[in-house]
Amino acid sequence: MTAQYVSSGEFTRDQRYIATxxxxxxxxxxxxxxxxxxxxxxxxxxxxxxxxxxxxxxxxEHVLSMGIAGPTHDSRSWTFDLDPGHRDPVLGIERLQExxxxxxxxxxxxxxVPAMVDTRTGQVVTNDYAQITLDLSTEWRxxxxxxxxxxxxxxxxxxxxxxxxxxxxxxxxxxYRSGFAGSQEAYEKAYRRLFTRLDWLSDRLExxxxxxxxxxxxxxxxxxxxxxxxDPVYHGHFKCNRQKLTEMPVLWAYARDxxxxxxxxxxxxxxxxxxxYYVVHRDINPTGIVPAGPDLSGWLTPHGRxxxxxxxxxxxxxxxxxxxxxxxxxxx
Length: 332
Hints:
By secondary structure, the protein is mainly alpha-helical. It has helices at about 45-60, 95-105, 130-140, 155-170, 175-180, 185-205, 220-225, 230-235, 250-260, 270-280, and strands at about 35-40, 65-70, 115-120, 125. It has a domain at about 160-320: Glutathione S-transferase Yfyf (Class Pi), Chain A, domain 2 (Up-down Bundle), CATH 1.20.1050. Helix content is about 35%, strand content about 5%. The longest helix is centred in the middle third of the chain and has 22 residues, at about 185-205. Pfam families: GST_C_2 (PF13410), GST_N_2 (PF13409).
């Protein structure tokens, strides 16, 4: 079964997510507990990739396991085709939808990643991607690694929230509003809105190293996962082609700065990213042919943004290397 992604006019994202939260006090019935929950992601998905980055930056690998779905799926669900027997080794399921149906047998919305699953019951707890990363920063604080950064500092939360709001509307979701537009008018409206915001971000980042304050925050994580997909996918596949990221000097340097920061680039799987978009979106790319390019070598070139100051991890320190089982395979 092949899903249809292009809308009849302007693309509108369904933002009705499972709002249950995993909290330190367990007020929703799901207290933070080491080893109890499993974070299910796909490295192809920008929304899931936020959780992958945050989990790694905060050093939560030892208390929150991670299952990685394959890069492609059908209209039913993400699948665990990367694992032996095509089953998640902890949950024992072939499709993520099994965890959704275990809690909601009549669940009719999208089976999305990231998803937090209770390993005791096999039931999904939440797929509210925006709240998941904020809760990893705040509710899971007891289990952060020594030297973990504060990605959502209390004194900057209002500004971070403001930046996140416009970046989501115009950039994170804006590329989809361009790519899934079903009319010329809807596409051009989304296209203009996207590049107006990218110009705004370029102006903001020209004189400051990070989006809010002088350290990495949640705002940088959310922008990064879109920027890293821009040239491999959004520029061509989604027709966001006024410029490539590599042709926007400030944003290209900013993205390289983050990519070269431990916890960011070492979570990126360009192969999965390209295979997901070009294979799954058959109504945009009917042949399913995956482009051979672009050249990725530029991601490791000097960015020069140290000159702007800033301290990536504040008073903390970078995470160590990823574990062998979570290391992204080298891209040829």
